Amino acid sequence: MHPDARCGSSLLLLTLLACGVADRPPATQTATDSAPAAAGTSPALMAYVTNEGSGEVTIIDVALDSAVGTIPVGTRPRGSRVSPDGTKLYVALSGSPRCPPTMPDAECEKLRADKSKDGIGEIDLGARKVTRVLPGGSDPENFDISQDGTKLFISNEDVGEATFVDVASGKVEKTLKVGQEPEGVKLAPDGNEVWVTGETAHDVTVLDTRSGKVLAKIETGKRPRSLVFNQDGTRAYVSSEVGGTVDIVDAKAYKVLKTLKMPEGAKPMGVALSPDGKRLYVANGRAGTVSLVDLGTDSVVASTKVGTRPWGIALTPDGRKLYAANGPSNNVSVLDAETMQVTKTIPAGELPWGVSLGKAP
User: Does residue 6 form part of some domain?
Assistant: First the structure.
């Protein structure tokens, strides 16, 4: 796929040496730390922004809406997930070249990839440093993590595969064929299935998380990028960049129920669902907007201008704030999720790709 492809008070600058990793140590870690939370207070909510161009993660304090640190992580960080216990951040790293949108896929594939840089970086969020790099298959782009934090389910873009990894042992359990150029990965709420979008296959592959068996192939709009489930797992919402649509899928019957057309010029990418399941937020890529869809009427009720080509988005657990990573703008927009007004724009690194939220350790 072509990627269309700071600080709070009392900051202490730490230079952290990278921990050794067999055969391929991560780059030297440098982190800027904010002051720790006072004893007895609840952990702060943080937004972790992967910067594909500068190879780092920007840490944003959600209460302050200010960047409070950075962590160098490796080459082309894209997808990320916070561990269920909030102590670790996992980041997909890739040694494949980053090609401009105008370059044909065939030409991009001819450029040399450094497969030694592929993997899933594991970051200790307390120390703010990479502690090891897990295998992630070839050119990992995105992934999800099991509810107990023991398994990773990863999309391998350049080989049309999905990789299952055991976190404790750091070993690959399964490598499975899925649709071409897989990107979006999402576990169903019950944890029994993992759905993987195939960008150039224009479909979603549904895999059994235990056996790896293909349970279904669901045809979608053109170039599906991301997906999200409602809380009970009966519906899935799949964005399609080239199609300019979002498909509403019956997640039990594996059937598209309805296709929603996004505003003119929209290239839907990241999606997020409100906690009550009534509102869907869609990053519209090259249109430079984020749209709000009322799922009661299945209609777009607002579209807000943010930075250039918003990629990944994330909604706070209370559903009140939305964060959008604006790739070429090198910043993150903060939106009031109710009014859809931009409340702040936060500088990030080069080409912010996605956002993950988690409590500070």
Answer: no
